[in-house]
Amino acid sequence: MTLSVIMQMCFAAVFLDTLIFGGAAEFIGSLYDEEELYKPKEGYQISIAVKIIMLVVSTAVIPLALIYFFVKNSFALTGAQADMFSNLVLVGAFTPMIVGVAFIVKNIQKPIDDLSEKMKRLSEGDFNVRSRIYFTDEIARIKAHFNVMTAQLRERELLRETFGKYVSIEVARELLKSGKMDPGGEEIEATVLFCDIRNFTSISEKIGAKELVEMLNSYFSFITAPIIENRGVINKFIGDAVMAIYIPQLGSVDHASDALASAIKMREALADFNINGIKPAGDIKFGIGIHTGTLVAGNIGTASRLEYTVIGDTVNIASRVESKTKDFQADILITSDVHKITAPAFANVKFEKAGETMLKGKDRPVEIYRIL
């Protein structure tokens, strides 16, 4: 009677959840929120190893024990026969079962525990974790899929670190987080900053390709930091030029002021570069143009490759103003629209009216200011 009760308890512990909930997945799902269905549940848990042991106890050990006691009590066995029967049950049945259970636990429970620990490390950001594969069973296939997944995540992280350090990673993050920006295209009020190296063509002719790339990487590392510090987003690099946008939806509420603050700090960063940077062709000069106004922001490209960027007259004017810096012998030029917005907040900055100039593609002259 006692063995029967133990056997039933083992069965219940192993199969209770399957018997009760196995065919009621939809009902159980309705008891949780959508997100809760994919999170681990708190409470007491029975490991796979314990379930296997309980299953063996209830389906093999206890039935065999019942048969043993039944034979012992029902048949008159002599001393030698009783010993032989006991040894047969012990050595021929229980010992293989114990060895088999140990083998199952070692080859199922331990690999699962190891893989679970590695998945935890992966979730914490360790993309270099991998699982060794020795066999071709189901667990080996799970490990193989895990290794493929970690390799893909590692590759994506490398791409993000290599190419997304400056180029619009903030745009992607903000799109996912807030949904305030419409990737399909929208008109927004923003400020655009263009920065270009003076006489870059002649510089590139004086040095080799490797030196040129090293110089540009060093140069960009200096002059892009102020853009990011002042809530700007580097939209793209165009050879030696950089285009930055300042958008309220990305945190730049006072976008015109942020752009001007960036330009002033970039002037300081350039001076620092000319002292400490890699400049095989000597000191570098740049020109910065800033304009503010309405522009169109959205995903531009094809279905297979899209880029979130901005287009419109505001972008064109900023670019054209930057191209005028050499003519006006200035390193920073802004339009009158930027001046109207920023002058009250930059009392310590000296603005000098440079006059009006015709820009390519414009019918009317544009009034511009130098930042001294």
Looking at this protein, list some descriptive labels.
372 residues; alpha+beta; Alpha-Beta Plaits; 2 domains; eight-stranded mixed β-sheet; 12 helices
Give an overview of the whole structure.
Strand 4 and strand 5 (306-311) form a beta hairpin. Helix 3 packs antiparallel against helix 4 and helix 4 runs parallel beside helix 5 (138-163). Strands 1, 2, 3, 4, 5, 6, 7 and 8 form an eight-stranded mixed β-sheet that branches. The protein folds into two domains: 2-124; 169-371, Nucleotide cyclase, GGDEF domain (Alpha-Beta Plaits, 2-Layer Sandwich), CATH 3.30.70. Mean pLDDT is 80; it is low at 163-167. The relative contact order is 0.07. The chain has twelve helices and eight strands. It has helices at residues 2-21, 25-29, 48-74, 79-123, 138-163, 169-177, 200-206, 209-223, 225-229, 255-276, 313-323, 336-342, and strands at residues 186-197, 233-238, 241-246, 286-301, 306-311, 332-335, 351-357, 366-371. Helix content is 53%, strand content 17%. It is elongated. It is α+β, with helices and mostly antiparallel strands.
